[in-house]
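Quick review question:
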């Protein structure tokens, strides 16, 4: 994924500093409207962070899951087996996708619960690893583990699948592990999310519909915070506010924050679910308060050392609770 909107952020930053320099917490009050009627659930979902952590470690142990490598193929086989063991049914899409002269084997894995139910929620995360640690020029040709970028979101989805297998939801749920998200080039929107673009075109053609989608990307890092970036607010405003409110109501207010990032937009898998499939989809993605990615993003430091069970749990439990309760928004 990559970020745009820095200039706007800079301009808005100057304006907001001028207007609100005496009220530095002003933005934290933004967009909590409706939360007054939001009730804490009677029973809290039992997301197991230890299990999720093991799922991150297992992916990392395969090596970087870079498309066209043995580690990628081996991890795909493991993910398919895990999803088949938990989900009511599993769809696998195998195709080839290309960008900037490179062609990649692409394996999308979609697990379904209650497949006959027309009321559905989509949860997705990419499982591929970016082929290069190019956030730092000196390591632009090195690989990295992708523990947070890719690994954490997939781990939370696997643990959600494990829990849904134990205790069913009333609604239908689709858990989508997307491939070849992270081989893109900054500035070229369509070079990102290649597996999701393929899926979204198929979904649109087949008439698939979900109420909304929740993308998990970088949801396991120490000290992570989650702010609603521009596309999330634009395409899934009420839905994402409901999810943020849920996170706050079950005790994760330090993670799910309401501060305005001022024009920062993240091009990620949710962009294509929104724009191609027409399903309102949010991105739960770790960002710093100034809109920057976490320091380990696309660097060799994205490894198990920065993975925190508390972060995995805050996001996983919130999403699981949403799936069980299906709150209005
Ligand atoms: Zn990435």
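Suggested answer, residue by residue:
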């Amino acid at each position: 994924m990559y970020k745009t909107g820095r200039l706007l952020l800079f301009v808005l930053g100057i304006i907001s500093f001028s207007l609100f320099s005496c009220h530095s917490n002003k933005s934290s009050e933004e967009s909590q409207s409706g939360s007054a009627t939001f009730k804490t659930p009677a029973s809290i979902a039992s997301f197991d962070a230890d299990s999720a952590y093991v799922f991150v470690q297992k992916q990392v142990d395969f090596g970087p899951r870079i498309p066209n490598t043995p580690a990628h193929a081996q991890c795909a086989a493991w993910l398919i087996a895990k999803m088949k063991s938990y989900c009511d049914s599993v769809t696998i899409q195998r195709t080839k996708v290309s960008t900037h002269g490179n062609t990649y084997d692409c394996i999308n894995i979609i697990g379904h619960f209650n497949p006959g139910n027309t009321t559905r929620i989509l949860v997705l995360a990419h499982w591929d690893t970016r082929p290069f640690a190019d956030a730092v020029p000196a390591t632009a040709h090195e690989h990295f583990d992708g523990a947070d970028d890719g690994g954490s979101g997939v781990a939370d989805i696997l643990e959600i699948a494990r829990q849904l297998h134990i205790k069913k939801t009333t609604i239908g749920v689709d858990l989508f592990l997307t491939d070849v998200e992270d081989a893109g080039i900054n500035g070229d929107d369509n070079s990102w999310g290649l597996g999701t673009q393929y899926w979204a075109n198929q979904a649109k053609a087949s008439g698939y519909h979900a109420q909304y989608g929740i993308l998990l990307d970088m949801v396991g890092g120490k000290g992570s915070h989650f702010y609603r970036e521009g596309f999330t607010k634009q395409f899934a405003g009420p839905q994402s506010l409901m999810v943020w409110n849920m996170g706050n109501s079950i005790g994760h207010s330090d993670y799910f924050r309401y501060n305005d990032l001022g024009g920062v937009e993240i091009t990620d898998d949710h962009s294509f679910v929104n724009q191609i499939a027409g399903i309102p989809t949010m991105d739960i993605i770790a960002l710093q308060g100034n809109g920057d990615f976490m320091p380990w993003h696309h660097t060799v430091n994205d490894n198990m050392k920065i993975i925190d069970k508390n972060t995995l749990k805050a996001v996983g439990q919130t999403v699981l609770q949403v799936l069980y309760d299906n709150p209005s928004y």
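Why it works: The two ends are 27 Å apart (CA to CA). Confidence is low (pLDDT under 50) at residues 6-31.
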